[in-house]
Request: fold
Amino acid sequence: MSFVFEPAPVVGLPIVGSDARFPVRRVYCVGRNYAAHAREMGFDPDREPPFFFCKPNDGASIVPVPAGGTGTIPYPPGTANYHYEAELVVAIGKGGRDIPVEQAARHIYGYAPGLDMTRRDLQIAAREKGRPWEVGKAFDFSAPIGALRPLAAGGEYNAGAIVLEVDGEVRQNSDVTHLIWSVGEVIANLSTLFELQAGDLIFTGTPDGVGAVKAGQTMTLRLEGFEPLVVKVG
Reply:
């Protein structure tokens, strides 16, 4: 097959203990999946069905950061309120539709720390007008992700501290056990809306404490059991 120009390469995430890379297919994100974060954003954290949005799956949006390394992302245009959101990312290794909660782990390849970077002012402006969130969530360099830890190597990940520091100061401090919808429930619900495929990533939501970062600052996401994800705003 020929193309009128060279297709963009598939983005591959580093994997702990392997030289192979995890090929990314789609990037799904869960909105407001920690009660305290829902409250700080002005919403009732009652356990209503989860909602989802997407980020691009290309190398312009995803920023793979190897274990022990430091990623650098530019301060994005069009915003004066650039926010971090620390998250557990789940990588799907086996596809499926209408996946039962109790079978969700069979579809997981592994886990990683990730940052859902957000142009908060643009997101809120779009939300207030009932418009899509893409300009606030799906921009270039909006998804730094650390190295994946395979489920086969470390088992299921349903509990663990999640801490975000900016220049050494703790801004977010919670635990994955505080997810409103568990990882298994998120996978089960999402699979009723989309047929999941190997290569899909799911950002599972962020705890409270989100806030702005400026050029020159460094974010460090410490997800218990993983190498820290270190990202500097260039």
